[in-house]
Amino acid sequence: MKRIAIDMDEVMADTVGHCLNLYKSDFDITLSPDQLHGRRLWDVVASEHWDHVRDYFEREEFFAGISIMPGSQDVLRELTNEYEVFVATAAMEVPCSFSAKFEWLQRHFPFIPTSHIVFCGDKSIIAADYLIDDNVRQLSRFGGEGIIFTAPHNVGEQRFRRVNSWEDVRALFLGVEAQTRNP
Amino acid sequence: MKRIAIDMDEVMADTVGHCLNLYKSDFDITLSPDQLHGRRLWDVVASEHWDHVRDYFEREEFFAGISIMPGSQDVLRELTNEYEVFVATAAMEVPCSFSAKFEWLQRHFPFIPTSHIVFCGDKSIIAADYLIDDNVRQLSRFGGEGIIFTAPHNVGEQRFRRVNSWEDVRALFLGVEAQTRNP
Fold first, then answer.
1. pTM of the entire predicted model
2. Does B82 lie in the same domain as B58?
């Protein structure tokens, strides 16, 4: 059985979306997906708000409020029938997130055993056939095949097979076309 | 540069020793290493105390009090000059330990970058050339060469190259005999 490792933020979890919601609520400034195209969060948030936004990630409750990415639950459940599925998240960058990330996964993806959750830093440590990730640096270091999950900041990247959605993940790994299943 | 993954409990951290100290303090019962020979903690602790001892692991402060294994700091520091060193600990079994384990590593092994710390469950996910671990189940699933670090419960195991101490680790990986360095 082949093994797929899945990144959490921006792949399973709409972390940036949650940030933008908080930012709108705090400053009444709406940042659209169009504005993020080809850019990182820090490129579009006003520099005088950087510290404020950075503080979001220091709050444990921040992670509990993050929405799941559309389709991720259904497709991940299907993938577990045909692949070994591991979650690999770069949690070491935000140590205050450990418990909240673990609880979030338990709540939204209870069918993934805790033994298949990995908190790491450098994803070159992940032994898997595939890594689905939005982060180009992590994909570059990974030893298997990196599959890039589209996020606004990575749209210019050409080195990896690309999936734009969980429907694309389903089509790529389960050979099921999105339009067949969702006529 | 080859990569070595190192288990934490019973290899870097004297977790069982800390348990036995607490047990002695709570019940005035001394359990010696001889009594543990070839057995697990649960084989030597009276069954009416199992819940009490199990509760040790549910307390976050338990992990802060654990001693480091003799020689581990010096040898690990030396290993980082010639190998990529990662710490791989099965923290998912004890989610309350995340922060305490991270802080313990930061305090005692500050020369290991946080990007090289991995909290996992099943160590078959670890991509490394070697895994030094006391746990036979984890060593069996690991894809590289497993090196067994002697602990009372694993003394009967014959399938892996064995190290009895950090001096043995130094000799095996750095080709330096213990007696030469510590005349």
1. 0.90
2. no
